[in-house]
């Protein structure tokens, strides 16, 4: 298995991301970190893992997640490829569970699983619940024909990556992970949602300005429409008001919450709030 982690100025979260990779119960064969012109201490941190992981460091000068993702996936040597973001933290048994699913289901092309937030109110309680439920979830069959698979937790066979390439739009103004999903649809690939393959991610997107969140939702529609998936695009268009309402609610919570202290703080007093540059 190869994992690909595109990075751009991720010094605040890359340590926890790579620590979770080190802690896997089954060693990951290749860990590819693609630097996309970071100007902070990200790569200095990454390089300290050279003796802890089978680390490959690549540089992608073309700015954009689309380009760094593609560079990493094209370079990956494993039969199973995983791509996730620098704020993703794998559960300890993630790798062995993924490999077991792939080995037991040779017709499975791509998969994902639960993506949980680690920096929201109640996240510790949520983590305890997940660990309690995990034995029961092992008996829950995967959801087949799932859609979409997000870029913060995407797993696919190397052959599946090659199969989607002819259908990719590779437009930096669209969502690059949704582009893969739409291309996978056209290529006729099978995608599953597996309940025991879970990761933790940051809710940092919801700390972005509301204008950016609205643009993010619109870009989702634009990506589906650009692929000519009219029925799916029309369905999502009908969902957009509800999606925006959900995003706005999460924005309100995250901008008045300090995950470092675990306390609510009025946004105008929350000095630890950092603005993230969105890939789209």
Description of the molecule:
This protein has 280 residues and is of the alpha/beta class. The protein folds into 2 domains: 2-205, Spore Coat Polysaccharide Biosynthesis Protein SpsA, Chain A, CATH 3.90.550; 207-270. It has helices spanning 14-22, 42-47, 65-75, 94-104, 123-137, 158-164, 176-187, 210-226, 230-254; strands at residues 2-7, 30-35, 55-59, 80-83, 89-90, 110-112, 115-117, 143-144, 154-157, 191-193, 199-201, 257-258, 263-264. It has an 8-stranded mixed β-sheet, sandwiched between helices. Strand 12 (257-258) and strand 13 (263-264) form a beta hairpin. Helix 8 packs antiparallel against helix 9. The two termini are 28 Å apart. 35% of the residues are buried. The model has no long low-confidence stretch (mean pLDDT 92).
